[in-house]
Amino acid sequence: MHVESGYCSGCPGRDSARQQIFEFASRQRQMNQYMTNTPMLENGSSNGYGQVSDYPYQCRECQKSFRQLGQLMQHQDTKHGNRRMLEY
Fold it and tell me: How far is CA 27 from CA 9, 10, 20, 44, 79, in A?
């Protein structure tokens, strides 16, 4: 969670960390159920960043959307008592 929120001093920035986490999660087949189908917005830059939608993750139990994967994981644990997602 500290990487995704930008508090990790070893990471090149919050947007970069968020993009990399999103790309990693997108490649995991079991994560498809937690990804929204919201179209991605591009910021016009050539570095590839800015392609993550504002709220790319979604709780499959209540359909609430989240900006960060860590937020979804915390929500799943506290609101639904669901630690299954954490096993992936």
Answer: 26, 24, 11, 23, 26
Sign of CA dihedral 83, 8, 23, 49: positive
* Predicted TM-score of the model (pTM): 0.68
Q: What is the 3-state secondary structure (H, E, C) of 3-59?
A: CCCCCCCCCCCHHHHHHHHHHHHHHCHHHHHHECCCCCCCCCCCCCCCCCCCCCEEC
Residue 63 pLDDT more than 50?
A: yes
Whether 82 is in a domain gets the answer: yes
Which structural domain range is residue 57 located in? 14-42+50-87
